[in-house]
Amino acid sequence: MIFGVIGVGSMGRNHVRVLTEIKKVEDVVIYDVNRNQAEEIAEKYDARIANSVGELLKEVDAVCICSPTKFHFQHASECLEAGKHILVEKPISSSYDEGKKLLELLKSHRDLVFGVGHIERFNPIVYELADLELDVAYLSIKRHNPASLRITDSTVVEDLMIHDIDIVFNVIFSGESEYKISAAGNRNIVHALIKFGGKIASLSASKISSKKIRTIYLENEEITVEGDFMTQELYIYRKPSVYQSVNEKYLQENVIEKVLINKVEPLKVELKTFIDAIDGEAEFPVTAKQAVENLRICEIIRREIT
């Protein structure tokens, strides 16, 4: 299988690196408007360079779209017209309306595999959380980043918080259809509160933090769960069956479990799953419909902060 990668910036170069490590991938062809950058990546990972998107599409079976968000719809449309399987980086497009147009195009290409790179869906702690099947009363996710020049055409909502919107709506509260959203912040710092009846999800995201934070916290009346997306560690706290009393003071000794997790690189899992989906061996879990819905939620939150 020959893969193409459109855009080899910070995320695209990681796609190239991982693809060259996967046995089912015979060759990787790359295109970037920055020729010097393309040459650097091609030399480093033994990839071939195409002079245009059109030239790339003539040589490949599948494409990873890692170009800036504003080009996602254009590049996805070109790839669909060429009959190529597509994995597009999140967000799927630059707007909800553009995403809906892409869904219409996909109706004519049901034979192609189309996936969206919401990478945290492939983090092993998310798999573990899904397996717990918790009735979550309260959830908090914090995703804070030091300042970066990498993203220039997105707010912190589409850049960072969208990962957690995907987890909330497609993993933790996937069966909930009624909700209310409120938010406060600006382009670089946002706090969103999502209420599913009596259940609450609190999401915070920042582009200006001095410390990189990727944490998740869940609780109900029986247990509390804490996780770290970066270290891929997950802890479960259970209440004791008996509370001790010493000198009229209560001592609570919780039972703490560290979940055994096989740590992996989520991008490698994502790309292997995409390849398996092309081979008919698996379903790619992040659909275009889910990704477009994630964008709709992003736009609701963005309206709240403007």
From TrEMBL:
Domain Gfo/Idh/MocA-like oxidoreductase N-terminal, residue spans: 3-113
Lineage top rank: taxon: Archaea
Molecular-function GO terms, alphabetical: nucleotide binding
Pfam families linked: GFO_IDH_MocA (PF01408)
InterPro entries per the UniProt record, alphabetical: Gfo/Idh/MocA-like_OxRdtase_N, Gfo/Idh/MocA_Oxidoreductases, NAD(P)-bd_dom_sf
PANTHER family xrefs: BILIVERDIN REDUCTASE A (PTHR43377:SF1)
Name by which UniProt lists this protein: Gfo/Idh/MocA family oxidoreductase
Species of origin: Archaeoglobus fulgidus
